[in-house]
Write a structure and sequence with these properties.
Layout: H1 6-17, E1 22-27, H2 34-44, E2 48-51, H3 57-69, H4 83-97, E3 103-106, H5 108-114, H6 118-127, H7 129-133, E4 136-141, H8 144-152, E5 164-167, H9 176-180, H10 185-195, H11 199-206, H12 212-221, H13 230-236, H14 246-253, H15 259-266, H16 274-282, E6 286-289, E7 303-306, H17 309-319, H18 322-327, H19 330-356, E8 370-372, E9 380-384, E10 392-398, H20 407-419, E11 430-437, E12 447-448, E13 451-455, H21 456-461
Parallel strand pairs: 1-4, 1-5, 2-3, 3-4, 10-11, 11-13
Antiparallel strand pairs: 6-7, 8-9, 9-10, 12-13
Helix pairs in contact: 4-6, 10-19, 12-19, 14-15, 17-19
Length: 467
């Protein structure tokens, strides 16, 4: 299903309504639903959809011609010795047939790997043949940074040609209820901790009709489970394959977050890691984090984290435990999962609080939220400033409690927040303190001694609670 891709579909459909030719550039990490979106768009518009693979260039041209022939008959009757001839014929046949597209080329990096000249060929075709035919063309790939290097960088052949360009992001957690049924705040958090915003995983989980942890045991921990080798496959499917980056993921997933710690664990020089870390960031698996108030260019205090919930779960539960998982019974695997789950849930909840706070509609609209840490001082899970104005600071803590927060526990948590030192380096005139929890017990006040209590449903629905 196309959960929450309305905006992206409308952006693509606008191209078809334009009288002139258009070029769209779409990126998105694997399993995020890019292929489903583009194939559905092409199908509904009666267009051409082609997905590349690792075959030789001549084979890829034949496959491409066969895809075109489903819309432009007899196109595949010729053998095309190079891409230039294929695209020239495509624009000519399109004019004769009154066909404007869309023409979707998915997994473009696979084609470029076997045909390095292709970006320049595409540039000439977009400027001339496709333009004269009024064609709507979409190029897509899984790595945002690789697509930028091929198309969007200043020195790329296709720079400046894109009419529309966007990266397909993981889905918003509110759509998990459409995929998995009615879930309370904690159940929703558990589903997000396992599957994140990746629709492929939602679809598989929805087929199981069970609670999250038993599904994880069957799909991920069970050695024959369909997702047991998922991270390995993700790396192998990249173009070029990213399997050489596995050691970096192992180090980060194993608890090494500073670049010096990663280098020490891998017995490598710090300077040798930057390219690999940059590629993992581009693949949507790793993020570089700096504390609130610190410049993004500051390298000494930056940390590298697995930002995808599923990948984080996989490295915590599967990567270092393969032998155990093969020998263990289903009950033993489930016990292993339950032992690691509270920490995984807590980390996912913190991430969600930071990512969803700026989307909340309340008396104050907050900018990008970050974590704050410095030396041995107490950390803050969520720190943000208003989008407009100055002088106010929001500081918050995320508590991934299993039971709904009752008034007595809330009073204790609030008092701890009130005496916790604020981040250093800021002198706000006004402070908003927030306690984030999955669920608040019915009847519990939503503001105690000036501290807001925000639950999972508030975050997901984007609503600020009333006092």
């Amino acid at each position: 299903m196309l959960w929450d891709r309305i905006d992206e579909l409308e952006r693509l459909n606008r191209l078809l309504r334009r009288p002139s030719s258009s070029l769209a550039v779409i990126s998105g990490r694997r399993r995020v639903g890019k292929t489903h979106l583009l194939s559905e768009w092409s199908r509904k518009a009666n267009g051409v959809y082609f997905i590349a693979d690792a075959s030789d260039a001549s084979v890829q041209r034949r496959y491409f011609a066969e895809a075109v022939a489903r819309r432009l008959p007899r196109f595949a009757e010729l053998e095309y010795s190079d891409w230039r001839r294929l695209f020239d014929r495509l624009s000519q046949d399109a004019v004769h047939a009154g066909f404007r597209g869309p023409i979707v080329v998915d997994e473009l990096p696979y084609l470029v790997a076997t045909s390095p000249e292709l970006p320049s060929v595409l540039q000439q075709w977009v400027d001339h043949g496709a333009s004269e035919a009024g064609l709507v063309v979409a190029l897509a790939g899984s790595s945002q940074r690789m697509m930028q290097g091929l198309i969007l960088n200043h020195d790329a052949p296709l720079f400046g040609r894109a009419t529309e360009a966007f990266a397909l992001r993981p889905l918003h957690p509110r759509h998990l209820r459409e995929a998995l049924g009615e879930l309370d705040g904690l159940e929703l958090l558990d589903a997000w901790t396992a599957w994140g915003g990746i629709p492929r995983y939602w679809t598989l989980a929805g087929l199981e009709k069970d609670q999250t942890l038993p599904i994880v045991e069957r799909l991920v921990l069970e050695p024959s489970g369909i997702l047991h080798e998922e991270v390995t496959r993700l790396l192998q499917e990249e173009s070029p394959p990213a399997t050489a980056l596995r050691s970096l993921l192992d180090a980060i997933g194993g608890g090494a977050h500073r670049v010096s710690e990663i280098a020490a664990r891998l017995e490598r020089q710090v300077t040798s890691l930057s390219r690999g870390l940059d590629r993992l960031i581009g693949l949507g698996l790793v993020e570089r984090e700096v504390p609130f108030g610190v410049s993004e260019r500051e390298s000494k205090r930056s940390l590298y984290r697995l930002c995808d919930p599923f990948t984080r779960m996989w490295f915590r539960l599967v990567a270092a435990n393969r032998g155990f998982l093969v020998m263990a019974s289903s009950e033993e695997r489930l016990a292993h999962l339950r032992g690691a789950w509270p920490a995984l849930r807590a980390e996912s909840f913190e991430d969600l609080c930071r990512s969803l706070l700026p989307k909340m509609d309340g008396p104050t609209l907050w900018s990008v939220a970050k974590r704050w840490w410095h030396g041995n001082r107490p950390e803050w899970d969520v720190v943000a400033e208003p989008r407009k104005g100055a002088g106010t600071l929001l500081v918050g803590e995320a508590r991934a409690l299993e039971k709904p927060l009752g008034k007595q526990r809330a009073l204790k948590e609030v008092q701890e927040l009130l005496v916790r030192p604020l981040p250093t380096g800021v002198t706000p005139s006004r402070v908003e303190r927030v306690l984030f929890v999955p669920r608040v017990e019915k009847g519990c006040p939503r503001r105690i001694d000036g501290v807001w209590l925000i639950e999972m449903d508030d975050l997901v629905e984007g609503r600020w609670p009333s006092a």
